[in-house]
From TrEMBL:
Name of protein: Transcription termination factor MTERF15, mitochondrial
Pfam families (alphabetical): mTERF
GO molecular function: nucleic acid binding
Protein source organism: Acorus calamus
Keywords of the record: Transcription, Transcription regulation, Transcription termination, Transit peptide
GO biological process terms, semicolon-separated: DNA-templated transcription termination
Record keyword Transcription present: yes
Family statement drawn from the similarity comment of this UniProt entry: Belongs to the mTERF family.
SMART domains: Mterf
Keyword set includes Transport: no
Length: 310
């Protein structure tokens, strides 16, 4: 009992995802049997010894319930069988506390089998899990499509090299996280794979950067998530450098009635910097100032035949 409670408290204290009362309640409801500090002297002493002299009322309230306990020891034994050292298991438990609620036989073991069926060695699996413990939360069967996507990529070799720089399995996991992100915003799974196949650069960018672009797309530009299917390159360009200046120009033109047609996302993103400048900036003195230093960049750039920079 004490070991399980202590492990749970350590996980709770270090888990960023458990920062709200309802999250803590759900987590503890999957971890502890019926008990409370007042009813169990051992538990009350343990709380005080771990600097919980005034225990969180959410935890105390939970411990008075009657949830189904979870066998955390089985997860630890499973990780040991995979070759993880004690300090690595501690790191995994702290970084991915949700593993406490994942069944070994129904989820973790089939997932381990799938890793090997997909051709990943035990060492690759170990390194990938240490780098990203959330890999252990993947449902069996989810990784195969991501593996296939990475095999079919036709991007520049430099981009593919960066994608695979931390190992193939880590690249698969990063791909899955971005697929999940797109689906979380409402894109169907088939289209999410299509977007990343056409524009794989988000895999090498931070997930937060991708989320920031999608938020900008929906709430600032007013486009739906489905527009990414027609213009997936939006997720590959730099937001502050390439999107925001163009957005400011278009907003100004709309406000003065200088835009004679409705722009789609691809109309905003695909033109080169020079083409966009000639179409929407140069004819309007106010827009030259709004475009700022990007106007000077275009005006001062030597004209080279066949230059299609963006």
């Amino acid at each position: 009992m004490a070991i399980r409670v202590l492990a749970g408290l350590r996980i709770l204290a270090s888990a960023r995802v458990l920062q709200y009362p309802d999250q803590k309640l759900r987590f503890f409801s999957n971890l502890f049997p019926k008990s409370s500090p007042g009813e169990d002297p051992e538990l009350g002493s343990l709380l005080k010894n771990q600097s919980f002299s005034d225990p969180d009322p959410t935890i105390v309230g939970f411990l008075k319930g009657s949830p189904k306990p979870i066998n955390l020891e089985s997860k630890i034994e499973f990780l040991k069988d995979l070759g993880f050292e004690k300090h690595e298991i501690d790191q995994i438990l702290h970084s991915f506390p949700a593993i406490a609620s994942i069944d070994v036989e129904d989820r973790l073991r089939p997932l381990s089998d799938e890793f090997h069926e997909l051709g990943f060695s035990s060492n690759e699996v170990r390194e990938a899990v240490i780098h990203n413990p959330r890999l252990l939360g993947v449902e069996a069967g989810e990784l195969a499509k991501c593996v296939e996507l990475l095999k079919r990529l036709k991007c520049r070799s430099a981009i593919k090299k960066k994608i695979l720089s931390k190992g193939s399995l880590n690249a698969v996991m990063e791909t899955k996280l971005r697929i999940d992100c797109l689906c979380g915003y409402g894109l169907i799974r088939r289209d999410a794979f299509r977007v990343l196949w056409f524009e794989p650069r988000p895999i090498i960018y931070k997930l937060e950067d991708m989320e920031k672009k999608i938020e900008f797309l929906i709430h600032k530009l007013g486009f739906s998530i489905d527009c990414l299917v027609e213009a997936p390159e939006f997720l590959g360009v730099k937001l502050e450098k390439q999107v925001v200046p163009r957005c400011n120009v278009i907003e100004h033109l709309r406000s003065i009635g200088g835009l004679g047609f409705e722009l789609g996302l691809k109309d905003l993103i695909r033109p080169s910097k020079l083409k966009f400048y000639n179409m929407f900036v140069k004819p309007y003195p106010d827009c030259v100032e709004i475009f700022g230093r990007f106007s000077r960049d275009v005006e001062n750039k030597p004209k080279v035949l066949g230059d299609h920079s963006c």
